[in-house]
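quick one, 164 residues, struct below
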Amino acid sequence: YGGHIHADSAPGKGALFTVMLPVRDGVEEKPEPVSSKKRIVDTKAKVIVVEDDRAIGVLTAKIVARLGFESKYVGSAKETLDLIEAGYDPDLVITDVVMPEINGLELTAMIRYKYPHIRILMMSGYDQNMISKQGERVPGVPFMAKPFTRAELGHQIAQLLEQE
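---
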């Protein structure tokens, strides 16, 4: 691509790296649309985002809200179960897999058993080896690898909410 890197280093002084990249001519990056063929119809759907990493959970819940859904962030599987048992009836639960106490695989199995009408989307930044150490995945539950784009998340949510 015609770029280069220059490194300058001296003992006790550290290192300075200069990266030179060429300017791209006439190409402007545009954000991809949430769905190129279909708009999400049921924007009144309720979504719970379950993530033990607060920053990731809050960000994911904000993305879900910007997609037009009612979105709640909770920090644990126990909080999720308490919220549902208290009468909050989500259409979808988006859960991290690797979490302390009750992990996302266990949460998914519990929700499937007690509340089979609730759709579930699992997500993780870990590889399949680490996920398999958490337990066995529930058949038929979609999985997204983190990080993901707003468009990818929107597409997954749309697919799940369109299911009968």
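The first strand starts at residue 4 and ends at 10.
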